[in-house]
């Protein structure tokens, strides 16, 4: 009797667990994503430190000039709201916690797209759990993304993905859901030039889906277009002299090499072969032709949402190639061949390429060919993900020791705290 009772209780518990998982997929996906992001570079939270502009620009200006004043000033030609907003928020806490707050918010932002993929709002775009798992894994495990991993300076790239997903997903019904969408679309739209590039995406999506869109979509579209107008005005009025004047060093062969090595090839072969692929036309051209063939096929046959994501990525990388910020002295395109240089420009295109490759494999009708190609691609990509899972930890600049020294200085004292990546990157503070 007791044995049957225990079996019944166990069965009920399993049902409750399965029910909880089914009803809370988005929440579970969010926390799993956060865990994976942290595991890729644990020191982001265990020994949090500022990275580049995080400390040198955003925190320094917020601390020395005030958070509100800093928030209202453009940087490098356009508003970077998320970075300055986080810096302002961090002022409410002791200085020693500032990098942790920066990194924690960056991690949360990066995890948000995964949660949205697993929500009911994406059920029509990616209906199967297998598809959601594949695209989530690709997004979280991409190689060569150290530059955009767990730092606020480059969190706007993840916000751009999130804003795109909000545009094409099913509109929320609740007031809080709508408030969430408006908030993140505006933050994303005023954090970098992405709202400018999202504007044609909004218009195209409206044109093809206008008969089925809710009234709330127009609020989202208005927010995107308004942010784009603000950013365009900022670029026109303040961008002069903010970009590198180094020559592009552009060529057709180099373009093929960069796209083949840092986009198509890196997903399948890993970062260690980027230089070999990029510098050899015999290697890069076949990869380029195959990759572009899959992309073009997707542009003709895939869902509208994937087509638009490919177009969004293409516009981003076109803008990046036209005006990159890689070096202040050396030609820009040749400098990008490095495994890490300018990797932020390839992050969203890498997500789009991953999604296109997953879609392409799912569309193959011949079962034997589909299984064979899926197995080959799966093994290649899995090897890349496993070997590049760990992201190199930052060099310990002893931030807490410098904070201790700074805290004992008299008011008005000037102090520089060295931060990563080094080479003159410092947090300049004036003691209050």
Helical fraction equals: 55-70%
Cα-atom radius of gyration: 23 Å
Cross-sheet strand order for the largest sheet = 1-2
The structural class is mainly alpha
- Count of discrete structural domains: 2
> How far apart lie the N and C ends?
73 Å
- Stretches with pLDDT under 50, minimum 5 residues: none
Percent of residues in β-strands: under 5%
- Number of helices in the DSSP assignment: 20
Which word captures the global form? globular
The mean pLDDT is 89
List the secondary-structure elements in sequence, H or E: HHHHHHHHHHHHHHHHHHHHEE
Strand elements, count: 2
The main pleated sheet reads as: 2 strands, antiparallel
Brief characterization of the structure:
The protein has helices at residues 2-23, 25-40, 43-46, 53-65, 67-71, 81-90, 98-117, 129-141, 155-168, 175-189, 194-209, 215-238, 252-269, 274-278, 281-301, 304-322, 332-335, 344-363, 367-387, 399-407; strands at 414-418, 426-430.
């Amino acid at each position: 009797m007791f044995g049957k009772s225990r079996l019944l209780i166990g069965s009920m518990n399993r049902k409750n667990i399965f029910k909880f998982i089914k009803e809370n997929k988005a929440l579970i996906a969010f926390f799993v994503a956060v865990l994976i992001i942290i595991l890729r570079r644990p020191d982001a939270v265990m020994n949090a430190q500022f990275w580049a502009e995080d400390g040198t620009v955003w925190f320094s200006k917020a601390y020395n000039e005030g958070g509100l004043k800093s928030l209202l000033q453009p940087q490098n030609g356009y508003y970077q709201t998320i970075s300055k907003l986080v810096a302002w928020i961090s002022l409410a806490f002791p200085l020693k916690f500032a990098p942790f707050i920066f990194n924690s918010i960056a991690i949360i932002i990066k995890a948000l797209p995964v949660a949205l993929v697993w929500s009911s709002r994406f059920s029509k775009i990616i209906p199967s759990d297998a598809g959601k798992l594949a695209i989530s894994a690709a997004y979280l495990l991409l190689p060569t993304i150290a530059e955009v991993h767990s730092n606020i300076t480059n969190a706007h790239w993840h916000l751009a993905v999130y804003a795109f997903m909000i545009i094409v997903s099913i509109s929320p019904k609740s007031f809080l859901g709508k408030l969430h969408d408006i908030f993140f679309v505006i933050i994303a739209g005023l954090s970098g030039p992405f709202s400018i590039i999202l504007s044609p995406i909004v218009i195209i999506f409206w044109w093809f889906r206008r008969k089925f869109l809710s009234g709330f979509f127009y609020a989202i579209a208005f927010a995107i277009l308004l942010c784009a107008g603000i950013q365009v005005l900022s670029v026109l009025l303040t961008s002069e002299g903010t970009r590198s004047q180094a020559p592009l060093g552009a060529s057709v062969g180099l373009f093929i090499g960069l796209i083949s090595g840092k986009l198509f090839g890196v997903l399948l072969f890993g970062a260690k072969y980027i230089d070999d692929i990029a510098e050899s036309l015999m290697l890069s051209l076949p990869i380029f032709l195959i990759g572009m063939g899959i992309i073009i096929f997707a542009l003709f046959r895939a869902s509208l949402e994937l087509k638009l994501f490919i177009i969004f990525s293409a516009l981003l990388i076109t803008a990046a190639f036209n005006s990159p910020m890689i070096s202040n002295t050396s030609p820009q395109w040749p400098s990008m061949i490095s495994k890490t240089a300018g990797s932020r420009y390839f992050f969203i295109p890498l997500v789009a390429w991953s999604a296109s490759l997953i879609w392409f494999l799912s569309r193959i009708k011949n079962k034997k060919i589909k299984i064979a190609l899926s197995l080959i691609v799966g093994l290649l990509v899995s090897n890349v993900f496993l070997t590049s899972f760990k992201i190199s930890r930052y060099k310990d600049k002893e931030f807490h020791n410098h904070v201790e020294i700074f805290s004992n200085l008299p008011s008005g004292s000037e102090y520089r705290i060295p931060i990563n990546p080094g080479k003159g990157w410092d947090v300049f503070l004036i003691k209050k």
